[in-house]
């Protein structure tokens, strides 16, 4: 029977092997992004390392002073494809959860250019399936980690978070201000409130005055 030490050692071995294989297959110009994706979404029981998340944010438009004109659509698409591959191959709940957390941060912090490419990417994923558009974002409806009883129970929480993220992106597609950066959201809160009040019936409007 494997001890906890052996299990941790195996996880680290597979993480290093996955990172090595991914780097060896990645085009030279995307090596840094591939490395950041793999390491941010590894099976270590910790939050995605901020150093790697920042690398992805800077590439996709989330850095301070990052002009939209300097953001490469090719970089954004590579990051989206790389994270999608991680999600598609993940068998452990930690890697699956971290991939969604990273994607959530990118969607929230990188602005309109990333979000536009994200929606194109999602549409292409759904069109590639035979099950139709009623399927969830990454087809996690029946996904589970059955490596242990605890992992099996946590799988349900990961699926719930994935569903929340999908619903959040659907709302952002209809109401873009839902996914504005924090500073932009504060600036437009007053405008949004005035706009919404003008559409409320008088009976409801009196409740928020």
Describe the structure.
By secondary structure, the protein is an all-alpha fold. The chain folds into two domains: about 5-125, Serine Threonine Protein Phosphatase 5, Tetratricopeptide repeat (Alpha Horseshoe); about 175-209, no CATH class. The chain contains nine helices and no strands. The longest helix has 26 residues, at about 150-175. The N and C termini lie far apart (about 65 Å). The model is unreliable at about 1-15 and about 200-209 (pLDDT under 50).
Keywords:
single chain, 209 residues, mainly alpha, Serine Threonine Protein Phosphatase 5, Tetratricopeptide repeat
The proportion of residues in beta strands is under 5%
What profile does the largest beta sheet have?
none
Number of DSSP-assigned strands: 0
**Fold-level CATH name of the largest domain:** Serine Threonine Protein Phosphatase 5, Tetratricopeptide repeat
General form: globular
